[in-house]
Amino acid sequence: MRHRLRRVHRQVDKLLEDIIGERKRLRQKKMKDTAEDMLDVLLDAMEHPDTDVPITHDNIKAVIMDMFAGGTETSSSTIEWAIAELMKNPKEMTKVQDEVRTKMQGEASWCDIGQLSYLRLVVKETLRLHMPAPLLIPRVCKEQCRLGGYTIPAGSRVVINAWAMSRDQRYWEDAEAFRPGRFLGTSVDFKGGDFEFLPFGAGRRMCPGIEFGLAGVELCLAQLLFYFDWTLPGGMAPEDLDMSETSFGVLSVVRKEPLRLIPSIHAPLHLKY
Question: Could you tell me the pTM of the whole model?
Answer without folding.
Answer: 0.80
